[in-house]
Amino acid sequence: MKPVLLVLAAGIGSRYGGVKQMDTIGPSGESIIDYSVYDAIRAGFGKVVFVLNPKIIDAFKEIYELRLRGKIETEYVLQELDNIPEGVSYNPDRIKPWGTGHAVLTAKEVIDAPFAVINADDFYGKVSFEVMSRFLKERNNDDTHYSMVAYYLKNTLSENGTVSRGICSVNNGLLTDVVERTSIVRKGNKVVYTEDEKEYPIDENSLVSMNFWGFTPRYFEQSEQMFVDFIKQNANQLKAEFYIPYVVNKLIKSGEADVQVLESNSQWFGVTYKEDKPVTIENVKRLIDKGVYPGNLWK
User: 236 Cβ partners below 8 Å, 6+ apart?
Assistant: First the structure.
């Protein structure tokens, strides 16, 4: 059974100032998504599912339907605020959907094999897809032995502003906890994060989650009831979000699942800020010059 790639592409990038999912960073018009799907195909994934915002689905399909036709099976699902289980109510003034955990649940009906979850605007690298593919091919659909690709914090920072990262605690190769740290930035020879308006040092060799997870269809059942409970608890909140690490932490602590940490030495890069784009373009060019990617992915 070939694994499935689930691409979270519903965000509208407020800090970036545009729809960064489709922004061009390759020499032949490729976006970061193109490189992720290309890496997934050659790592043995058999299907890609895109979670999209209704505002961009038509423009998105116009680009990717043509590029991916005949190369990999594709599906599209929408992440909308009201795409929630029946009988659950929320604040009528809320505008935003419910976060990455909710985005994964929107794909429940179109995924029937072990699957990986990635962000659309993160460049994870060829090796990360290979190690994830090997892991998923060894799973069955009811397996609760999950995985995540972890990166070293120093390889995931932006030169153009602060970032938020899930800092991972690991024991014997298994994830024990993910703690979200915000406003992480390099200052001189150290890295710091901000909490309650105070700065704290953080080890640049800390392992971090970049939202590259490996699950099986069993995960949908496990997270769905958590999502219902989350909405009930946060019904009046306008911005509360149901994140994947929230689900993962609960599953680990209850003993309902474990998560193997697959480490990556890759230099992550992405486009959190508009100013990150030239750096990302240069990084891609360097990989093309090394022969990791062709100059035109889909030729």
Answer: 90, 91
Q: Determine the pLDDT at residue 240.
A: 84
In which domain, by residue range, is 169 found? 4-289
Taking only the tens place, the pLDDT of each residue in 20-34 is: 567 899 999 999 999
Other CB atoms within a 10 A radius of the CB of residue 92 amount to 5
Instruction: Record the pTM.
Output: 0.92
| Domain containing residue 8: CATH number | 3.90.550.10
* Residues 249 and 101: beta-carbon distance below 8 Å: no
Q: Please indicate, yes or no, if residue 183 is contained in any of the structural domains.
A: yes
Strand runs labelled E in the chain: 4-9, 47-52, 73-78, 115-119, 122-123, 145-152, 163-171, 174-187, 190-195, 198-202, 207-215, 258-264, 269-270
Residue 295, token pair as written in the block: 């100059």
Would you state the pLDDT for residue 17? 42
294 within a domain of the structure (yes/no) = no
Strand 174-187 and strand 190-195: the pairing is antiparallel
**End-to-end C-alpha distance for the chain, whole angstroms:** 27
What angle, rounded to 10 degrees, do the helices at 126-137 and 32-42 form? 40
- Structural domain tally of the chain? 1
